[in-house]
Amino acid sequence: MPVDRATRPTRHRPRLRLEAGTLLTVLLLAVVVHPALSAVPGRTPAVAIGLSVITGLGLLLIVLLHELGHALTARAFGARDLQITLTVLGGHTQYRAGHLGPGRSALVSLAGPAVNLALIPVLALAPSLLLTLTGPSGGSAPLEVLRLLALLNVGLAVFNLLPGLPLDGGRALEGLLGSLLRDPTRGTVVAGWCGRALAVACVAAGLWWGRVGGPASLVTALCMMLVALSVWQGSSRALREARQWQGLRDITLQEVARPVRMHRPEETLESSADTNPDAAGSGNSTASAPVDLVIAGPGTIRLVDAQAVASVPPAHRDRVPWDAVAHPAVPALVLSGALTPAQGLTALADQPGAIGLITAAGPHERPALRPATSQPAAPHIIGLLTPADWEALLTRPRTGTGRRRSGA
Fold this sequence. Notes:
Number of domains: 2
Strand order of the largest sheet: 1-4-3-2
Radius of gyration: 28 Å
Structural class: alpha/beta
Order of helices and strands: EEHHEEHHHHHHEHEEHEHEEH
Strand content: 5-15%
Shape: elongated
């Protein structure tokens, strides 16, 4: 199932969330397996229904173990804020881990199917073990449920290994191609189109199955259609994000950064002058109004509250220091203005909530977390990008303007 980097639950242990449609998954599967479980001579309808529901709950447990494989592998690689969500069509795992690299990302993606593969011998031997412990008196019903779960587990493993996004095999293919092509975005595009092809194949298989399988197979065909819809939506979302990242490679941080004015905390609103005139006139596409910053000391950057400044009467501006109208200190990452927004987002991936301080440093400088300086000119800060600005960059439409660059 898909693995995403997002959300913010507990830091160490994965948090489990059940969507409202999870119960629908159990009911749909119960309807699918009910004909097989009710065909046994002498079995009452109530028993058949109960066994069908138990089978659905068993598959839900298998899905949970699958997602735990993702979550625990990601945690072993340093991921935090883990969350497992069970949905109407399975589940997905979310976490925050910065830049794992293609190799580790592929291992996290393949960890879920690996759990299913490990369950194959367990579920294959379970009927024999149960029969040995209970003998013929135990009845055939538990054996039938275990055999069905074994088949469903194999199907889950095979389906998730198919090479198309948003499936686990598609995630692994995405990382492999991104590494081979030295372009993660191109890997996403290929794996995304493979996912769309798989969705079309699911639709075709569902139509065929619904036509030749008789009335009882219509529910199975409907489930295949729902799976196809989910795969299509996931692959389309991946392709859309790939286009957004491609657009972020065509510009530099210097072009989109907000201009800044920096002030010492003891300066008053009236007496303070812009200590960075180049930034205020640099021109960018994100915002035109400069943002005021207070450099309170080494490692301390504070954003000024514009509404608080506007509320100060003109007669009192010569007595109100900038420190009095500034927000609490925020984490900051110093980034070269020659980097692309895609590179900046990668550098900030492990610093949630941090602002990017953009400098006029050289293009070969490696992004690194540095303490803010009390001397505004060193390094020479020409602008900033807040978390809201990064989000706006990801969602803004592509216009075709800006400087073209090769590479990410």
